[in-house]
Amino acid sequence: MSLPQLFSEEHSADVVAASFENTPDPRLKQVLSSLVRHLHAFVKDVELTEDEWGVAIDFLTRTGQMSNDVRQEFILLSDVLGVSMLVETINHRTYGASTESTVLGPFHMVESPRREVGDNIALDDKGTPCLVSGQVTGPEGEPLAGASVDVWQTNEDGFYDVQQPGIQPAGNLRGLFTADEQGRFWFRSVVPRHYPIPDDGPVGQLLAATSRHPHRPAHLHFIVAAPGYRPVTTHVFVADSPYLDSDAVFGVKESLIRAVPEVDDPARASGAGLPNPFRTLTFDITLLRADQARPAAQPAQVQPTLVRGASGVMS
Amino acid sequence: MSLPQLFSEEHSADVVAASFENTPDPRLKQVLSSLVRHLHAFVKDVELTEDEWGVAIDFLTRTGQMSNDVRQEFILLSDVLGVSMLVETINHRTYGASTESTVLGPFHMVESPRREVGDNIALDDKGTPCLVSGQVTGPEGEPLAGASVDVWQTNEDGFYDVQQPGIQPAGNLRGLFTADEQGRFWFRSVVPRHYPIPDDGPVGQLLAATSRHPHRPAHLHFIVAAPGYRPVTTHVFVADSPYLDSDAVFGVKESLIRAVPEVDDPARASGAGLPNPFRTLTFDITLLRADQARPAAQPAQVQPTLVRGASGVMS
């Protein structure tokens, strides 16, 4: 038996990483080796005490046990630690060439009802009427006729329909639209509301212990897709919403924020089938071509410039 | 709203760490900030895909849900990733001044029955008879009269009594002894056996996917304590056991390995109340004084020398 194979504080990560040496799947081996190195570096950095380790074991156990068919507490944990957003961002780099993505969230659990452009998706007679519209294009500005535009949002009380079965009409504030020949879509809705993520479990306890609020700023979810192009999962955020600078799940990107101005124009209101005055939200979406190479990570000093460029293109 | 507060791939860890800025408990703030930095560095290092993230969420959820009153799958996960051993080692640094610690393990769930030195703890008439003995001293070699010596081990089939209720007699292969005036203890037992950790859950799946076996080398657990001294939780490992260089939970330290030689001496056997021949296991234990400062981490290049010194003191 050779000494270096035995555990020591100094070599702990090497020893554990070596135990994965015979992993048949090279990617699994890579991921686990990296995980072990970062996990051990964390424990050493803070010199985690045995009591703290016990608290962590208990917290993780309760997080698993809080999860069921309609509640995924580990996704919430990933969300509030910014991990969901980081994975999303790494896997959908755009660098100004297309609409930025953000988290899917847990409320796209039902298929959105098919609707015609112009339809009203607000079925519960609450909230501030809003005309939502936009155009779906490719990276050179080519209109994507027939693109599918899947949207969902909270009602005036800050809840999705699936959170209030029997209170909200089924399919309230959801819709699957098909863009017209010019890639354009429009529909009637209400201004979305900010809302808290579920905070009655371990993740809520973590937020409370760290004086963090559980709220997400007001947003409208989109999944936009067209044949031959990469789909995007994203939100548009309401520019005057509270919590825009402190989203509990870190989903806000500057390029995704839009003002929702009031329009006072009886003729336009009447034409759109809305009461006067009403609000308007415009969100154009650009998709990458499916055959475009996935952008790689850029050197840190180059990235912010490119991202600001993106914001200019989008708004 | 200022740009730096919004999430970006480049600044992700800063943005999330900043969200913990108002945490009232400074230690919690420190631990979470460090956790976030290491977790995000891991995700970036491997460019974790969305599918892999989903597998991780599912794995962690099942790990929580596998746990109950008699099974703690998250501790097992911590064990097979070397985290339990790292936490144990960081919190019980010895640098040659005392017996090294190792993991407590999950099987010290019952109080050990009080026994007199010389008693036989093997109640199931199985296994290879073994005389276990040792002396408990302080750092200057002073004998610790009346030290408590709590021991537990597997039987010949590789199970602890609590794993086989109704099959093994209650309290089989456990004992709480009081050392004599010279700090000496001795008792009759059998040579411990190697055994697998529970591998019918998510952690077992992880081991299988990485071609790792679930076994721990043969060992005897000790918790040794004396008033005015720091208690130690440790094992003594059997030198000719399989898996000594590949303990599934990384618990082996060189200073804790002992040969278990056979003694063929009818007079000694008769005196000890054992059949001839029998095996002997000698494990002397040195405790730090309670008022001794907890040793701090040493520079990496100094540490191996000190650890080898410890091994010389102990064996």
- Could you give me the name of the CATH homologous superfamily of the largest domain in chain A? Aromatic compound dioxygenase
Greatest interface (CB-CB under 8 A), with counts per chain: A-B, 84 and 84 residues
Q: What is the radius of gyration of chain A computed over CA atoms, rounded to a whole number of angstroms?
A: 23 Å
Total number of helices of chain A? 8
Task: Report the CATH architecture of the largest domain in chain A.
Answer: Sandwich
- What is the chains' assembly state? homodimer
The portion of residues assigned to helices of chain A is 25-40%
Number of strands of chain A: 12
Strand portion of chain A, in percent?
A: 15-25%
CATH class division of the largest domain in chain A: Mainly Beta
The CA-CA distance between the termini of chain A, in Å, is 65 Å
Average pLDDT taken over every residue of chain A: 90
CATH topology of the largest domain in chain A: Protocatechuate 3,4-Dioxygenase, subunit A
* Number of spatially distinct domains of chain A: 2
Largest sheet of chain A: 5 strands, mixed
What are the secondary-structure elements of chain A, in order, as H or E?
A: HHHHHEEEEEHEEEEEHEEH
* Structural class based on helices, strands and sheet pairing of chain A: alpha/beta
Indicate the overall shape of chain A.
Answer: globular
Instruction: Give the low-pLDDT segments of chain A.
Output: 298-315
